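Journal club prep — side note

Before the paper discussion, L.F. wants everyone to see what a predicted structure for a comparable chain looks like in token form. Sequence:
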Amino acid sequence: MPSSISSSDSRVVSTSGAERLTAADRPGVAQPVPMRDIPVQPWNRIFLGALVLFVLLMGAWEWHWRAFGAKPTIANSGGLWAMQRRRIDNGEGNATVLLSASRILFDVQLDVWEKLAGKRPIQLALEGTTPLIFMEDLAADPKFTGHLLVGVAPDLFFSGYAYRGDVFKFYLKETPSQRVGQWLSMHFIEPYFAFDDPDFALATVLERQDWPARPGKTWRIDVRKLRVSEMDRNTHIWDKVENDPEYRELARNIWLQHFTPNEDTPPPEKMRQTLNEQIDRAVKAVTTLRARGVQVLFVRPPSAGAYLEFENKVLPRARTWDVLLARTGAPGIHFEDYPELQGLELPEWSHLTHADAQRYTAALYRIIERDFWKPEPPR
């Protein structure tokens, strides 16, 4: 007789009327993965509704950032940098290569250079990052035998700071799937969607809201979007920085944060030691490069306003630039020494307007060709 809490019949009938076997029906046999009935629903309409909602939400997000002034641009990713670095591996070792932090990246326009030289240089500059990492890489690479232009932003070059130093490790270990993903993204997504920018990611936007500050924490605003890039990393300043006074002031205030000493600022003796270490690195790299026939040229791009005041106060030319040239024996172009490199507009004190970047590139190239070396002509 069955009890009130169990059934003598172990068979279970599903809601559809089909018999469903349980473990009791399979003595000595492992229990199979449970099977659940899929309820009858209008799945086609549900899928269509979800798709329409997704398109509407994505369209609204795209419209929002377009209205803000954003335009589709190629992300300055590690994969994009690696593509340009591999050009040297793939037979372009005799090219002109540009190294720097963001100033040479923004200020040297590859299309202008190409019109004058007949050949586009390889752009390997990276924002917020000392070029010494990549000088040392090229010094150790016998495939590179061309011309090397190295931009010097004093606060980065002489501190050794490498905001994006991990890009080099990425280049060394990049997988085939990462290469394919980079190619697909730069051809089918980034050229068409303005919102596809790390600066506009939802998590980033939420993080930048005016949340209450935690006691005892020094709050700093991260550097905002400043650039527009192409597939070969030809880059110029975003026109919003030029034309939107509020956004330009925000960019300036972000730089001002870094000019005020805080608890992370090293003592003067440590700063001098670091400065000497970076110059030592440059001497070693330049010596190796020149022994292989590489022509190295340092360039000090323009800066202005509070940024230039900070550089002149903390990293004066006599203790940095002049020592660098004297110890490496390499020539250099300092913007203060050439009238044609002055009088240009830098909206946020560190990067030229797009129009002035084109004028600067032409003037810089003519100085190089006239006084230093003629870049390798096309083959």
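L.F.'s comment for the group: The chain has one domain: 70-204+223-371. Keep this in mind when we get to the figures.
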